[in-house]
Design goal:
Helices cover 49% and strands 14% of the residues. It is an alpha+beta fold and 410 residues long. The chain folds into three domains: 114 residues, Orthogonal Bundle (Butyryl-Coa Dehydrogenase, subunit A, domain 1); 125 residues, Beta Barrel (Butyryl-CoA Dehydrogenase, subunit A, domain 2); 149 residues, Butyryl-CoA Dehydrogenase, subunit A, domain 3 (Up-down Bundle), CATH 1.20.140.10. Strands 4-5-9-8 form a four-stranded antiparallel beta sheet, covered by helices on one side. Strand 1 and strand 2 form a beta hairpin. The longest helix has 36 residues. It is globular. It binds flavin-adenine dinucleotide. The site of flavin-adenine dinucleotide has 22 residues, from strand 3, strand 5 and helix 12.
Length: 410
């Protein structure tokens, strides 16, 4: 049974994470927004150490002996929400986790999870990334053209292609001894059935960061293009059951979707952290300027601003409860594709609206760089784009609710 009661462990953890957000993130928010491409190494080093104790609260994959246990996703959602309340771009510079780790968690065999996730808790901070998107394959990611060919002589997979918009790709491949999970096709004619995922570690020849993007928001987080040219990885870097002949594996494209079922609620949590930051700051600035926000009044007696604030709170709370449910289903090992798509869609919309309203209500104060509201408005939009845009998550949810296959409702 899902419980909305926050455990003592969670409350203690949240108090610590809130302090991290206040002391370690907010003071450097503006600097890293204005110095895109620089990495907040002090934060990275601090979190690497802090995660050792937070790990005890199951925030990151746990290494027990040589076995790796998955994190607790409800706790992780709470933590990501609060870190993103601090700063969503800097949160994406938190070591140890990342999309690559989530992909290994969702698709790897027990040996692969132990091998690749086990190293996240080493002496040095490690980043991971996941590369699906290509110039012609974003929303339609079954159109992937990055090619993987098995070389029977060397028993290696050889990858060629280009991946764009890879979050933390520079950190994972250049700055730390991390890895990127690259999705490629072993048979371009086979569509979805040909798609597989491969772990490419930092230092592997044939993979290069060839471009760093400049962005509207989350500027502390690096986003890169990766070029793969005759990039060779051992046979056992293909995630899931290894079929050396390159025939169908049990996971294939489904693995990408399973990764999204885990990560969409976490993106939703990040979105809602930004929304809460904007709501808190707007309320503080309004109160400071003598505007009282009264609750519990009949609608006709409320001011316009009160009505808007209550509406912002209502949608934020609804999206958060749905997010918790999606994360809880992950923890329970139950199907959550519908909840994951719905919470991500809803959170993307809520954060976009709440941050925009906050700037609108405060007018020039909201628009000014004196405060972080205008930054949060810019940070918000990505949550409605990556891990499936709002339109795509709406489609996914509609298919699941109405019982259509992908080919029937597009
Ligand atoms: C900052 C940033 C970080 C990212 N990080 C990663 C990462 O780490 N790894 C990774 O693999 N990718 C990453 N991405 C890529 C991201 O997931 C894609 O940009 C996203 O999935 C959309 O794909 P696209 O850009 O090709 O847009 P398109 O698919 O070309 O879509 C363009 C527009 O058309 C709409 N659209 C498309 N198809 C439909 C449809 N059937 N019905 C209705 N509307 C539709 C979309 O919703 C969108 O509004 C990142 C992107 C950004 C901007």
């Amino acid at each position: 049974m899902i419980s909305f009661e926050e455990s003592e462990t969670l409350k203690k953890l949240q108090a610590v994470v809130r302090e991290v957000a206040i002391q370690r993130m907010r003071p450097i928010s503006r600097y890293f927004d204005e110095h895109e491409g620089e990495i907040p190494w002090d934060y990275v080093a601090f979190m690497h150490e802090a995660m050792k104790t937070m790990g005890a609260a199951s925030l990151v994959p746990q290494v027990e002996g040589n076995k790796v246990q998955p994190p607790n996703y409800v706790m992780l959602a709470h933590t990501i929400e609060t870190l993103s309340w601090g700063d969503a771009g800097i949160y994406l510079c938190t070591p140890r986790g990342g999309l690559g780790a989530a992909a290994v968690e969702a698709n790897g065999t027990a040996e692969q999870r132990d091998k690749f996730l086990g190293r996240l808790s080493g002496d040095k901070p490690v980043f991971t990334a996941m590369a699906i998107t290509e110039a012609q394959a974003g929303s339609e990611n079954s159109a992937i053209q990055c090619r993987a060919v098995f070389d029977a002589q060397s028993q290696e997979w050889v990858l060629n292609g280009e991946k764009i918009f890879v979050t933390a790709g520079h950190k994972a491949l250049v700055d730390t001894p991390g890895f990127v999970v690259v999705w490629a096709t072993i048979d371009p004619e086979a569509g979805r059935a040909g798609i597989r995922s491969f772990v490419i570690e930092a230092g592997t020849r044939g993979i290069q960061v060839t471009r760093q993007d400049k962005k509207l928001g989350i500027r502390a987080s690096d986003t890169v293009t990766l070029t793969l040219q005759e990039c060779r990885v051992p046979a056992n870097h293909l995630l899931g059951e290894v079929k050396l002949a390159g025939k169908a594996s049990p996971k294939g494209f489904k693995g990408a979707m399973q990764t999204f079922n885990v990560t969409r609620p976490l993106v939703a949590a990040s979105a809602l952290g930004i929304a809460r930051a904007a709501l808190d700051e707007m309320t503080r600035l309004l109160t400071e300027s003598g505007v009282e926000i009264r609750v519990g009044m009949p609608r006709q007696k409320m001011s316009y601003v009160e009505g808007e604030v209550i509406d912002m709170q209502r949608t934020l709370r609804a999206a958060w409860l749905l997010t918790l449910k999606a994360a809880w289903l992950s923890d329970e090992g139950q199907p959550n594709a519908l909840e994951a798509a719905m919470c991500k869609l809803m959170a993307g919309e809520v954060v976009t609206r709440v941050t925009q309203k906050a700037v609108e209500i405060l007018g020039p104060v909201g628009y000014s760089r004196t405060y972080l509201l205008e930054k949060w408005l810019r940070d918000a939009k990505i949550n409605d784009i990556y891990e499936g845009t709002g339109q795509i998550n709406r489609l996914v949810a509609a298919r699941l609710l109405l019982g259509y296959r992908g080919s029937e409702l597009r």
